[in-house]
Write a structure and sequence with these properties.
The protein is built from 5 helices and 8 strands; from the N terminus they run E-E-E-H-E-E-H-H-H-E-E-H-E. The protein has 186 residues and is of the alpha+beta class. The protein has 2 domains: 71 residues, Nucleic acid-binding proteins (OB fold (Dihydrolipoamide Acetyltransferase, E2P)); 100 residues, no CATH class. The strands form 2 sheets. A 5-stranded mixed barrel has the order 1-2-3-5-4. The longest helix has 13 residues. It is elongated, with a radius of gyration of 18 Å. The relative contact order is 0.13. The structure holds zinc ion.
Length: 186
């Protein structure tokens, strides 16, 4: 019989969905495994303590087993939680922008800080986009707006995740796009 790898790792709950009648499917950003999808079997049963702990914006230590796909077995009590709408939007950003199964200690550290402070701002997005290679780490170097391209007149102040482009505030405001996909960088 194959030995299945089981481990404890701190996790941040990015998304939670129902799966079948009783299971929950989670998108997690984890310290040790990066972003993963993990299922919690029978977690929607009224007696399951997992369901109560595993809500969006929660950071908690969890026991995960890799059976070819990840399964959430247990959580330790405690851990921080933030349900501030700006931070929920930040979780959406992390989900959109990070690949699966690629741990990144720097990203984990930032995510943990954001949830711990229950606060997020342009500096954080700028730093994350810099780590991801989308923008210069030097704050004085502003990217040009991808749509109007007038860098001098209106430097980009927003990042639009569906197209992975920077936009100036005019272009950001003038088009009907979901505000949840626009992130401030200045
Ligand atoms: Zn523009």
């Amino acid at each position: 019989m194959a030995i299945m790898a089981e481990r404890y790792t701190p996790i941040l709950v990015l998304r939670r969905e129902n799966k079948g009648n009783q299971d929950l499917l989670f998108t997690l950003y984890t310290k040790d495994l990066g972003k993963i999808k993990a299922i919690a079997k029978s977690a929607r049963k009224i007696t399951s303590k997992l369901a109560g702990h595993l809500t969006q914006g929660r950071i908690i230590k969890a026991r995960i087993i890799d059976k070819g796909s990840f399964q959430l077995l247990d959580v330790l009590s405690g851990g921080g939680k933030c349900t501030n709408l700006e931070v929920i939007k930040f979780l959406h950003f992390l989900d959109s922008m990070t690949p699966y199964n690629q741990p990144d200690p720097h990203l984990w550290h930032i995510a943990k800080e954001v949830v711990g402070r229950c606060q997020v701002g342009p500096v954080v997005y700028r730093e994350l986009l810099s780590i991801m290679g989308f923008v210069s780490p030097f704050p004085s170097v502003l990217p040009a707006c991808a749509w109007c391209k007038r860098r001098e007149r209106s430097p980009a102040t927003l990042f639009y995740t569906p197209d992975l482009v920077f936009l100036c505030s005019n272009c950001g405001a003038g088009v009907k796009i979901d505000e949840d996909e626009l992130f401030p960088i200045t």
